[in-house]
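Bench notes, afternoon.
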Amino acid sequence: MCSVNHEKKAIFIRSPKTGGEYIQNVLCQFYGFKWYYLSRPDHDEFMEEAPHSSLPFQDNFLHLHKKGIYRYYQSSKYGNDEMNLDDKKWDSYFKFTFIRNPYDRFVSAFKYLKKYHSKKCDYETLEEFIHNMHKICRYSYFHLFITQFENLRNDQGIDHLQAIGRFESLENDLCRILRQIGFEDTTRHHSIREKKFHPASDTRPTWMFLTPATLTFCNQYFEKDFKVFHYNRYRSIEAMKNKKTSSPLYIICIFILLFLGLFFLLRQHARWP
């Protein structure tokens, strides 16, 4: 879940269900990166107590239970030896990642698990996963419940990342970041742009997978992701369906527009100069 280009001094941190497989393939096939799927000898440091799942425990990077991907790789002596990295390089290299709307990422992870990893899925619905989140297998927990903030942070936060792209504007952001890294030609990968992701088994919009209870859970559990990465939260399924946001910025804009409307109405009525 980590790709490195030593010539360009750049590191890509891949967080689940944010377009990372496509981005990783582009970087490695066209831009000289090498990807690493490494598991730490001290993997247990990233585990809580074993869940009560009947599925076998696997100690690799796809079965994390806490701390997240960035710290898993950055703090591993074994991993750094394999990747030819050290603390100085982690500090000085250009580090970038991609994020996604927390609602969409959560539902995408659920659909992915149900279609491609049904044997790892302990439960059938989002409600069941949420209710039993501390009992599900670690693979499911890693994809569903480790927040993007936790996956990407170091001990101080996310200021160590020089660039953050968005899934919602993936191509534009990827080309922008490639130029920041130092690639003048960012069109090398355009021949595979249509082969981005796992084909969706269910193309219904995100709001159709949520209930009032699961929406409330997302708003609370992924609160840090919404705030830090500036995604809008919704008060209800109907508001999400109609894209009526409850974000502070939206509310401020509404008040400004109302104030301006009232101002011009009073000015016209009073015939101010």
